[in-house]
């Protein structure tokens, strides 16, 4: 199995570890310390050796930060984790705070005293974060102190070793563009920013640029590394050489100079000493890297990491790969749904068994490289935990007459998938059907949106929520995230969310469409497809160039939970057309029994 169901956290250890950290801080003359979830790459995908927040608190979510003072501590998480944090973190040790509604900055201003010294690891906080934190701490009359070594590491006795996943070259047939051509394109963009060199801190950016893949973190083929890319000439790749076979090293050496990770800061200082202008994304790069350039005499050009948009806009080979991956995944998923519908009402299924069975169907494609994230297999009340992670300890039976939510994805060499379906097990209530249908209406509104060139995801987000809002309901997470090409299942810079975002959607981008509704301690509902941004036919009488979405995901939506009386004729037509497409593309690739099930599951409704 690619996914483990072992219990990875123990909230009872949090207070003991917090006490040890406080002793370490006192020995260093510090009054407080900040522990983010991120590692030095500031990404979502963090190796075990850098899961400091999880080690300290027990919290396994993908976003959060802890502030530790001598007499109190608080953990800040977003709306996806407000239930999860209470289950995983000891409240007597760490007060719960909402990352956005009760931000860290306000907490520091309220609780830090004049004259105190608050430490932070300058590799783990971005330049932008440090600027904000420094302003707040200084306003309180205290000092924000960058540390050379991390105090958590000093008290983490059994800290795992750094990962050494093997690096592989990503075939051109899937990449669609040679690394040499990408380097030329990115070099031109760096020159347009009037910089000599760009610092790349995101492993997925480097993987895309050099057409390499790795295995340093779970479920995402990332080779942890940094890079310096000049506007002209050969880039430098900073990576542990033990990850490179002789063959891969020889091929990579034709593209880049290879050095160890410890040589990055000296290289930045050398650029600074030469008076070079270095392009740095201050929202992604650690403060220590920024300081290495500036303190040695160089100049930082602040701007977006130049690979982000080119990586997000998929080329034709990547688009065709995504479609092939989703068709393959659709066949596996249809087999899974048919099995689930037949088996679940008989009893005996658990969250773990269902997650294992879905992975089994995907493995039988012969192309599965990994799951793209830990499957969220959530029975009944666990469905209300947006990013629930099932373990053998939390494993619930899937009961008759209940709602079951499963959010999962696959990594194939030609594409990355991510799909959520909410399924009826036996009879469901009218209220549950109503909430499901309201979520479906939001999903359809995004799927059918036509919007002018230049529109951002934040401008579309309300479409997914308006029907819920009319009923006094909402969901506390984004509507959609970008998705990589055999890379991260969560990929920026585009997204669909309430949060302001200035990235215009462009043809070739892939985003999720996943509105939801969650009734705490009862059930959760989410419907997720991946969508490809495409040019749209012009609107009669209009004069604007328009864009729209093409669904990539090919899987039935559970008609047993749809209250057709709540759908307009337009929405019914979309649902029937979507199901017709699933039948047309997936049906011929199924065995006779599963195809008969699919025909019924995607039957036209009125």
Automatic annotation (TrEMBL):
It holds the Pfam family Peptidase_M24_C. Residues 545-605 form the Peptidase M24 C-terminal domain. GO terms for molecular function: metal ion binding; metalloaminopeptidase activity. It comes from the Bacteria. Keywords: Hydrolase, Metal-binding. Residues 17-147 form the Creatinase N-terminal domain. Its EC number is 3.4.-.-. It is an enzyme of class 3 (hydrolase). SUPFAM superfamilies: Creatinase/aminopeptidase (SSF55920), Creatinase/prolidase N-terminal domain (SSF53092). Gene3D superfamilies: Creatinase/methionine aminopeptidase superfamily (3.90.230.10), Creatinase/prolidase N-terminal domain (3.40.350.10). Belongs to the peptidase M24B family. This is Putative peptidase. It comes from Pseudovibrio axinellae.
